[in-house]
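Hello Y.,

Per our agreement to keep a running log of every chain we model this quarter, I'm adding this entry. I've kept the format consistent with earlier entries: sequence first, then predicted structure.
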Amino acid sequence: MNTREWTGIILAGGLSSRMGTNKAMLELDGSVVLQHVTEAMRPAVSRIIVAGGPNVTTYSDMGYDCVQDHYPGKGPLAGIHAALKASDTDWNLVCACDMPLLQTSFLDGLKKLAEINDTYSAIVPRVDGHVHPLAGAYHKRVLPNLEQQLNHDHLRVMRWLEEIGCCYVEVEELERAGVHHAVMQMSNMNTPEEYERIRNQDSGLDSDL
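Predicted structure for the entry above:
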């Protein structure tokens, strides 16, 4: 699978209620968090789509290729759905906008694992028993089932993953695919305290990689 066969999807349409401000627009090392995620993703894909939800105007004004939810107010599944509908490729890398420590190697690793496990429609990391569905690889063939979930207000991401028969990949598999510091790279931030933790981790990750 080469770059031309992949689209990158960034989920940035959340309300950021616990943070108190739009997480994607927080400053980190001289640029906003959304830009960090974009820069990590760009080398791995041919196109990046931002599922912006109510923030579409903000991101469009910054030059991002944005889509609005077809099912407003229905959480991350609605964002994944809108972006997959707009994607021109079968396989898509999905990540949340609040994971600024992600590196390109992580996304390349997911692509390798998708190629190995191509009978599945979703490849999602599972670290110490904790599943990270917003840092995964998804095939467009999940769309019919995803639309059913949204139409019936079945909005739990974990339930949907079980419905589609997701392939969960452990840390050891990520490492074999070239991904290091996986736990740190998947760090996300929902509160001001977690934002400060991410800011402190960022410098440590840069020195190690």
